[in-house]
TrEMBL record:
Pfam families: PFK (PF00365). InterPro entries: ATP_PFK, ATP_PFK_prok-type, PFKA_ATP_prok, Phosphofructokinase_CS, Phosphofructokinase_dom, PKF_sf. Its cofactor is Mg(2+). It is found in: Cytoplasm. The active site is at D127 (proton acceptor). Catalyzes the phosphorylation of D-fructose 6-phosphate to fructose 1,6-bisphosphate by ATP, the first committing step of glycolysis. The gene is pfkA. Mg(2+) binds at D103. GO terms for molecular function: 6-phosphofructokinase activity; AMP binding; ATP binding; fructose-6-phosphate binding; identical protein binding; metal ion binding; monosaccharide binding. Keywords: Allosteric enzyme, ATP-binding, Cytoplasm, Glycolysis, Kinase, Magnesium, Metal-binding, Nucleotide-binding, Transferase. The lineage of its organism: Bacteria, Bacillati, Bacillota, Clostridia, Eubacteriales. Substrate binds at T125, I126, D127, R162, M169, G170, R171, E222, R243, H249, I250, Q251, R252. It catalyses: beta-D-fructose 6-phosphate + ATP = beta-D-fructose 1,6-bisphosphate + ADP + H(+). This is ATP-dependent 6-phosphofructokinase. Allosterically activated by ADP and other diphosphonucleosides, and allosterically inhibited by phosphoenolpyruvate.
Length: 319
């Protein structure tokens, strides 16, 4: 193993820079050259590769986003485009590719590996929707961003005696809503895995008012529906002033937490070690606080299991 490349793909996540730093410095420590691919798979097929050294990743561990930048690349689904990418990597003398991203990015890495490119994936996504790993890089930071927003919204919600509905990211995964709802003391948590009844929600709000509750905080995962539409429905049914707050891309930004910085550093170093062991088509994860590597096909094929026990806890301690 003489030279590797690294790219970030898909949605950015806090901690990606810490992972880049760990990959680059671990590889250099092992005598391996590193090339950085700019703008993900789109940059790869355009030949946007730059050499990286220790100073390339100085003072980035605390920065959000990704210094390599990222971009969507739907054309990478075409085999001829992937073949072009494989040829570019070969032309640069690159022995392996490290991909930091989510399930879409990993799918790209899996398909490249079938063309003879050695690949390893590092999970970087705020959604925490990769089943094989307990946590993904960026989830903890996004979670703390949401909790900070909850604390601020609660102040004004209490002052005006309102119902406040906060919509958070997560697509088909409700982890961000569930964890933030519990940590933020929400009265009601709505996730795509569990669904909900609008009438049941209104009943809970009205019962709370009868018991002297002056405000309600509802956490809504984006995969279930829109916060504004739900707010209008709740206000019409209950007669209580209801406001919607969509946190949006603020959840992706910001300086990563210590937890994400350490997780990214551990995973980045592990990715290089896996490649040096001669493995390919692997993904890095954490399970029971141990950094693991797993076959990419097996990892992506795992069926997601929602944490029903944690959801039951949220219902028991809410309101």
């Amino acid at each position: 193993m003489q030279k590797i490349a690294i790219l970030t793909s898909g949605g950015d996540a806090p901690g990606m820079n810490a992972a880049i730093r760990a990959v680059v410095r671990t590889a250099l420590h092992k005598g391996i050259q590193v090339m950085g691919v700019q703008r993900g798979y789109a940059g790869l097929i355009n030949g946007e590769l730059i050499p990286m050294n220790r100073s390339s990743v100085s003072d980035i561990i605390h920065r959000g986003g990704t210094i390599l930048r990222t971009a969507r690349c739907p054309e990478f689904k075409k085999e001829e485009v992937r073949e072009k990418a494989a040829k570019i990597l070969k032309a640069y003398g690159i022995d392996a590719l490290v991909v930091i991203g989510g399930d879409g990015s990993f799918t790209g890495a899996k398909l490249l590996s079938k063309l003879g490119v050695k690949t390893v994936g590092i999970p970087g996504t705020i959604d925490n929707d990769l089943v094989y790993t307990d946590y993904t890089i960026g989830f903890d930071t996004a979670l703390n961003t949401v909790i900070d927003a909850i604390d601020k919204v609660r102040d004004t919600s209490t002052s005006h005696e309102r119902v406040s509905i906060l919509e958070v990211m997560g697509r088909d995964c409700g982890d961000l809503a569930l964890y933030a709802g519990i940590a933020g003391g929400a009265e009601y948590i709505i996730t795509p895995e569990k669904g909900f009844s609008r009438d049941e929600l209104c009943k809970v709000i009205l019962e709370g008012k009868q018991n002297g509750k002056v405000h309600n905080l509802i956490l809504l995962a984006e995969g279930v529906g829109g916060a504004q539409e739900l707010a209008e429905y709740v206000e019409n049914v209950t007669g209580i002033e209801t406001r919607a707050t969509v946190l949006g891309h603020i959840q992706r930004g910001g300086s990563p937490t210590a937890t994400d910085r350490i997780l990214a550093s551990r995973m980045g170093a592990k990715a290089v070690e896996v490649l040096l062991e001669g493995k390919t088509s692997r993904v890095i994860g954490i399970r029971d606080n141990k950094i693991i590597d797993e076959d990419i096909d097996e990892a992506l094929a795992l069926e997601r299991k929602f944490d029903d026990e944690l959801f039951d806890l949220s219902e028991a301690i809410s309101s």
